[in-house]
């Protein structure tokens, strides 16, 4: 069976925190989204990047269990807050690009 180009190969949940001030009180609204890796692109809630424009993926963990996932593109570096280790997502991307090497 032929694999559809629209099926995601890997996914990575991320979250955003929106801060607002209402009546002299600071409020935090956290929302969850997912980064999807496809055969030809990486999609986030707001952007779609062709794989030919993605230069690298990297991750910086924090001691509290969260971390920052970096998507390096020809349009700049996009940062996402993650609660899960993105190494499987990064490995899938590197295998797809043909420049796989283990961490």
Please explain how this structure is put together.
The protein is mostly beta strands and 103 residues long. The protein has a single domain, classed as Pleckstrin-homology domain (PH domain)/Phosphotyrosine-binding domain (PTB) (PH-domain like). Helices cover 11% and strands 52% of the residues. It has one helix and seven strands, in the order βββββββα. Strands 1-2-3-4 form a four-stranded antiparallel beta sheet. Strands 5-6-7 form a three-stranded antiparallel beta sheet, with helices on one face. Strand 6 and strand 7 form a beta hairpin. The model has no long low-confidence stretch (mean pLDDT 89).
Give the count of structural domains. Answer: 1
- Total of helices: 1
**Overall average pLDDT:** 89
Low-confidence runs of at least 5 consecutive residues? none
Order of helices and strands: EEEEEEEH
Q: Number of DSSP strands?
A: 7
> From the helix content, strand content and strand pairing, which structural class follows?
mainly beta
Name the CATH class: Mainly Beta
Q: Span between N and C termini?
A: 32 Å
Read across the widest sheet, the strand sequence of neighbours is 1-2-3-4
| Helicity level | 10-25%
Strand content: over 45%
The name of the CATH topology is: PH-domain like
Q: Looking at this structure, what is the CATH superfamily?
A: Pleckstrin-homology domain (PH domain)/Phosphotyrosine-binding domain (PTB)
Rg calculated over all Cα atoms = 16 Å
């Amino acid at each position: 069976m032929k694999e559809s180009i629209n099926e995601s190969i890997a996914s990575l949940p991320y979250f955003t925190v929106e801060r607002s001030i209402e009546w002299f009180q600071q409020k935090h609204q956290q929302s969850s989204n997912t980064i999807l890796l496809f055969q030809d692109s990486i999609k986030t809630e707001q952007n779609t990047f062709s794989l030919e424009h993605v230069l690298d993926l990297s991750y910086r963990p924090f001691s509290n269990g969260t971390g920052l996932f970096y998507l390096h593109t020809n349009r700049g570096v996009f940062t996402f807050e993650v609660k899960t280790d993105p190494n499987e997502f990064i490995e899938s991307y590197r295998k797809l690009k043909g420049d796989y090497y283990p961490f």
